[in-house]
């Protein structure tokens, strides 16, 4: 059973896991969540702009949104991160200093914006066109109708897809390590990789994977819950009553009841 002992020492060395646990919690987990949350927020802003441009009636607004979406959805995430992180390094150093941390967030937000834009566009276009026409009939402008009626309904319909996109950003945040983050800015994967190199086994990386699962698995089930909730509605529809049921539920008049008793 030497192979089993070797397997356990390679992937489940609890001493190595306990040694790296404080750094994974205090540095890796915090940075992963910070990168993911800020990239998602910026991606939502970019995506909403792209969605509004994508459903616009003017071609000169739809075409740039289509080009942006095709480019950032078509390129591999690691290529975009390297192009942004290395291409704008000098500008970032003048603004943020030597840390490539902001550029990693910017790259992820540009990628997320392309996907979120398509999510928002699909949600907006799923709203019945009659609602927009009703708003125009009431005297609302096209912009007011979109902002107050159509867009809020579209966003509500795509909330599960937005959570799915956040899960994807959490996993893609591990690619930011290619930019060479500072020790205090390293995310879960980088912390686990460094500890794995020092200890000579993969147990710290396994623990980093467990932290990713702790984040993504509950969110996945939350997506499924909201998706089922939005599909079925809060209340189940009551089955239609038959004619016999309606007759049975009708109140009996006192005179008729007295005649039956006699």
From TrEMBL:
Q: Which organism is it from?
A: Microbacterium tenebrionis
Ranges of residues in domain ABC transmembrane type-1: 29-223
Q: Which UniProt keywords apply?
A: Amino-acid transport, Cell membrane, Membrane, Transmembrane, Transmembrane helix, Transport
Cellular localization per UniProt:
Cell membrane
**Similarity-based family:** Belongs to the binding-protein-dependent transport system permease family. HisMQ subfamily.
Q: How does it sit in the membrane?
A: Multi-pass membrane protein
Give an example GO cellular component term for this record.
ATP-binding cassette (ABC) transporter complex
Q: Which CDD domains match?
A: TM_PBP2
The record's listing under PROSITE patterns reads: ABC_TM1
Where are the membrane-spanning stretches?
A: 33-55, 67-89, 101-120, 166-184, 204-226
The entry's protein name is Amino acid ABC transporter permease
Q: Name one GO molecular function term.
A: transmembrane transporter activity
Region Disordered: list its residue ranges. Answer: 235-262
Biological process (GO) annotations held by this record are:
amino acid transport
Q: What is the lineage of its organism?
A: Bacteria, Bacillati, Actinomycetota, Actinomycetes, Micrococcales
**Main localization category:** membrane
